[in-house]
Amino acid sequence: MNSAAGVILSLSYILGLLSTAVWWGKYAVLALGIGAAFVVPKFWRTGSKAKVWLAVGIVGLLAALYFQARVPQPLANDISKFVHAQNGKGQEQVVTVQGKIASTPRLTQSQRSQFWLEASKLNEVKNGENKPADVSQGVTGKLYVTVPLLQATGLYPGEAIAITGVLYKPKKASNPGAFDFQAYLAREGGFAGLSGRQVSFPNEQEERGWGFWTVRQRIIHSQVRWLGSPEGQLVSSMVMGSQAVDLPYDVRNEFIQVGLAHALAASGFQISLILGFVIAAFGRFSVRTQLGVGIAAILIFICLTGVQPSVLRAGVMGVGALIALAMQRKVKPLGSLLLAATVLLLFNPLWIWNLGFQLSFLATLGLLVTLPAIIKWFDWLPPAIASLFALPIAVLPWVLPLQLFVFGVVSPYSILANIISTPFLSVISIGGILSALAGLIWPLAGSTLAWLLYYPTHWLILLVQFFSSLPGNSIAVGTISIFQVLVLYGLISLAWLNKWWCRRWWFAAIIATTLVVLPVWQTKATLFRVTVLSTPGEPVLVIQDKGEVTLVNSGDDSTANFTVLPFLQQQGVNQIDWAVVTDSQLSPRSGWAKIMERLPVSTFYANTASISKLWTLGVKIPPQALPVGRSVAIGTSAIKLINSQPPVVQLQISGQSWLVLGNFKPEENERKLALLKQLPPVQVLWWSGESLQADVLQKMQPKVAIASSATIDPETAQTLRKINTKLYTTERDGAIQWTPSGAFETTLEATENDVGISY
Questions:
Q1: Are residues 194 and 223 part of one domain?
Q2: Is the same domain home to 64 and 126?
Q3: I need a labelling partner for 130 at 20 to 30 A (CA). Which of 253, 405, 407, 756 fits?
Q4: For residue 265, which phi and psi values (nearest 5 degrees)?
Q5: Could you check whether the bond before residue 646 is cis, i.e. omega within 30 degrees of 0?
Q6: Is residue 162, in this structure, part of any structural domain at all?
Q7: Are 613 and 712 found together in one domain?
Q8: Which strand (E) or helix (H) includes residue 727?
Q9: What is the pLDDT of residues 140-189, one digit of tens each?
């Protein structure tokens, strides 16, 4: 097989894995290969023969089948099989699970410790006593565990522990733009989670084991000892990657926000430093010795970082470079990159959908094919300075389409931030590796070398904070479609491969920009949509009115951070025109402060009783009172606060009347009944799922009823069905969206029979 055929077959394998995005993809690849076998040889006589193109279709089909075969599936005795179906009444399944820790405990954004557990035994806790669960054998499977921070102190991989807590199955993303926890666990081979409360140790006499985690901890401790936090963790992250180090989330998020996420990922830069050190230190020895030492050093580094796809990519390419050096052959960078991708995807085909894997290869491809041409633009500068400008510019076009597809955000200052920060990153990375090596031999020496990096590291953090505080530091353009992604990469490939397009790269850039900006502008100018977000507790509503955005309520800080802000980012929202607070009992954990850190608010309306509480939360613009009984215009819609506490709100949205009911206390039933009987008919009723009187519902005659809960009072549900009301629950259906020209649409596919109504 010649090299051209090998390249074609490698690409067909990758294409086959990508085809798994749709169910018919593998058949399309097979048809493409068969069609190419008949057509291509007739027009390209010097190219590959028909049998090679036929092999393309077969390899692509086999790749898709191999991918499906490697998708993790729970075994018959997987611990997820013993999660009880929730009965809708809020009972928790409290269990004690025994097993061994499979990963280093890490800090989560909710300030809990998280790790994977290889489960081996399950006991169910009932009435405060341990009672064996209904199992005839031990359990298996990976379990996603979170425990209080203090409970995780001293835990290490391989340790046998028992955890008492609540067993649950992860849920799909119930809101647009939200993190799909269920899909994430499935990719990692886990199908259940445990919210731990207490950790105990069945084998208290067990000796502490050894692993690469001990080496990792030794390095981190030596670097943090005199550098402190977060400088120490940042140095360790730049040596071993943020996946191996608990870098504070505020620092991590700021680096991501300004386009410096790659600085926290161990990859090619560290591998190149390791290879440079090996060649310099062992240059007097034989080539075989250099090869052996280099491969050993790369393997040790990969184990230290926790076997991350980006590091493996750099490691495979590094080993390829060493082998080429030993055989005295010239390295073909593109061939090396393709070989690395093929080898890694043969090892784990599921990595084809790993974002870190994708970004790592795209960034490396950009450096290989775009960097030489861009450096020529700056040939009037010294080479070292020219590379500072050329590196971020070369990478940006290759990673930006994928970033827009996944995140829908552009960092305007990313190129400038990368240019200014590159000297700091180089000094800290080199110094960090030297400090790590010294710390392994003598921790005090490692701490001393790390201390010398304090000012470069501190200045880098200040630089990142400066860029993240600038106005417009991240612009949400909204997520783009897969069609736009394919066209963008097609334009980039043309500018790389075709001489005519290469000379007119600026024309391709204009087309690409138009392809992104024009649909965004058209959508904002024409879209009118109401979104009821699936949130616990306080109801949250978003009205998108031809470019103007109204946000009613924010939820708590967790809801704002993980639900509201990701949704607004996905929709390309950079400003809230009207913010409305309906609840008078505003929680100290209200999410408004977090939202206003990220998005400016033009006008703020609030329930009179909550205005003073908003000031304590750090709201900087003066909220206007939302008067009881008076309609207030919010764009083309209107809002009226009918009752202050609990809040009863009426919304007039594009000719529809929406009624939002707060939770009444049981002793307030008579007042609630009297209040609701005074209300006119409504098209949409949104409430907590609690009991509502049949005569009230008969008078309201809602066309649609939305319950912000997992269960609905059975008599209320029966009454709503009798009057032909379409019934939704955010727990079952996820976020619910409505446009004037269409029906209500749900985020999750479900039938009404799935709703947790307890008869």
A1: no
A2: no
A3: 756
A4: -110, 120
A5: yes
A6: yes
A7: yes
A8: strand 726-729
A9: 999 999 999 888 888 888 889 999 999 999 988 889 888 889 988 998 88
Peptide bond into 456 cis (omega under 30): no
**C-alpha span between 397 and 491 (Å, rounded):** 10
Residue 121: C-alpha distances to residues 116, 135, 161, 191, 205 (Å) = 15, 9, 11, 16, 20
Q: Is 143 left (phi over 0), alpha (psi -120 to 50) or beta?
A: beta
Do both 252 and 329 map to the same domain?
yes
Task: Please tell me the predicted confidence (pLDDT) of residue 61.
Answer: 93
Looking at the whole model, is its pTM more than 0.90? Answer: no
Residue 688, CB-side half-sphere exposure with 13 Å CA sphere: 13
Contacts of 68 by beta carbon, 8 Å cutoff, 6+ apart: 20
Same domain, 227 and 308: yes
Supply the DSSP symbol for 680. P
Cα 446 from Cα 452, distance rounded (Å): 10
Cβ–Cβ under 8 Å, residues 609 and 596? no
Distance between CA 737 and CA 747 in Å, rounded? Answer: 8
Residue 428 in any domain: the answer is yes
Last residue of a domain, one of 153, 186, 209: 209
Maximum C-alpha span of the chain: 93
Q: In 188-267, which ranges are continuous DSSP H helix?
A: 212-227, 231-240, 249-257
Mean pLDDT confidence for 664-668? 62
Strands 601-607 and 624-626: parallel
The torsion defined by the Cα of 689, 695, 698 and 702, in degrees rounded to 10, comes to -30
Residue 676 shares a structural domain with residue 722:
yes
**Residue 104 within any structural domain of the chain:** yes
Residues 260 and 230 reside in one and the same domain: yes
Residue 561 DSSP code: I
Number of domains in the chain: 4
Q: Give the whole-angstrom CA distance, residue 616 versus residue 589.
A: 11
- What sign does the CA torsion over 588, 592, 595, 596 have? negative
Same domain? 87 vs 174? yes
Q: What is the 8-class DSSP label of residue 470?
A: S
- Buried b or exposed e, range 142-164, using 16+ CB within 10 angstroms: bbbbbbeeebbeebbbebebbbb
Task: Output the average pLDDT for the chain.
Answer: 84
Give me the DSSP letters along 275-294.
Answer: HHHHHHHSTTS-HHHHHHHH
Q: What is the pLDDT of residues 713-735, one digit of tens each?
A: 888 899 998 889 999 998 889 99
Kindly state whether residue 274 falls inside one of the protein's structural domains: yes
575-614: pLDDT as tens digits: 999 999 887 777 777 888 889 888 888 998 888 777 777 7
Within 8 A by CB and 6+ apart from 95, the residues are 122, 123, 124, 125, 133, 164, 165, 166, 167, 194
Residue 643, domain extent: 527-754
Among 52, 70, 88, the domain boundary falls at 70
- Smallest Cα–Cα separation from 720: which of 746, 742, 752, 743? 752
- CATH code for the domain in which residue 152 is found: 2.40.50.140
